Amino acid sequence: MSTILFVNACMRGEKSRTLKLCREYLAEKENVVEVDLGKLALVPFDGEAAGRRADLQKVGAWDDPVFDLAKQFAAADEIVIGAPYWDLSFPAALKTYIEYVSVCDIAFHYSEQGRAEGLCKAKSLTYITSCGGFVEGANFGYEYLSGIATMFGIPETRFVAAEGLDVVELDVETQMAKASKTIAKLNGR
Length: 189
What we know:
- This protein is α/β, with parallel strands linked by helices.
- It has seven helices and seven strands.
């Protein structure tokens, strides 16, 4: 049975418009496992923590809890990431999470030629966001995650956005409905 991993970086919780879109996308899905980054409260790696993880990797101590998120990510059949558009990308909690899942010999490995080759099982990564203005030519969060997906061996990335939600002249419900249409297409409706 396939597993969908929902990485919830909607830091405003149930008030989040991005989370509303994510719940809509996931409503008809089964076997959804959610990782709520607000509740998880990961701490970025400092030199000491990164060194400890590298030492564990060298000896193949894959049962250490520091690798749990990476193993979960690599084993998922589909990845869904929900994150608001903040400062031209996404909340820092998502970048910290990516540090935890970006583990050589779990999410990817290096070929003899030194190229990263993905080890993740997922066939797609769907990135869902909302923003007060418009993403336009500054979609750095999605571009970053597309690069990560390629590195991890995930062949397809998809993007859903509700834009212009804080523009006074625009109707929020109309803008959200546009994103809902994209979600319906992705869900085969």
